[in-house]
Amino acid sequence: MTDDKLVIKNVDMSDEMQQEALDCAKTALDKHNIEKDIAAYIKREFDKKYGTTWHCIVGRNFGSYVTHETKHFIYFYIGQIAVLLFKSG
C-alpha cells in the first residue's frame, strides 16, 4: 500500500515535520489494516515526538473543519486513504 501515490492537499507545518507525518503514515499503513488503528498509531507517534495533543483522522470519505495550532496541520492522501493530522489543545 505504501507504493500508492502521495498527494498533499493542505499543509501548515515544517518540511521536517511533513516528512515525519508521511513516513509515519506509511509505517502505519504497513502495520495496520483498520483505519482506526492507522489513526491511533500516527497520533501516538506524534504525541511522543512532538508533545500532546495531536488528533488524527484516517479514511476514504469524510468532511472536516478543524482549528489547529499554527505550524501543526497536514492533510494528505496515500492512494485512496486520506490522513488528517493536527495538533490542538
Quick summary of this structure?
With about 90 residues, the chain is α+β, with helices and mostly antiparallel strands. It is built from two helices and four strands.
What is the CATH H-level superfamily?
Protein Inhibitor Of Neuronal Nitric Oxide Synthase
β content, as a range?
A: 25-35%
What would CATH call the architecture? 2-Layer Sandwich
Q: How many runs of DSSP E, i.e. beta strands?
A: 4
Distance between the termini: 32 Å
The percentage helix is 25-40%
Coarse morphology: globular
Structural class: alpha+beta
| Run of helices and strands | EHHEEE
Query: Strand order within the widest sheet?
Result: 1-3-4-2
- If you average the pLDDT, what whole number results? 96
Radius of gyration: 12 Å
Specify the CATH class.
Alpha Beta
Low-confidence stretches: none
Biggest sheet, open or closed, and with what strands and sense? 4 strands, antiparallel
Task: Indicate the CATH topology.
Answer: Protein Inhibitor Of Neuronal Nitric Oxide Synthase
By DSSP (H or I, 4+ residues per run), the number of helices equals 2
Protein name: Dynein light chain
Subcellular location: Cytoplasm, Cytoskeleton
Keywords: Cytoplasm, Cytoskeleton, Dynein, Microtubule, Motor protein, Transport
Family: Belongs to the dynein light chain family.
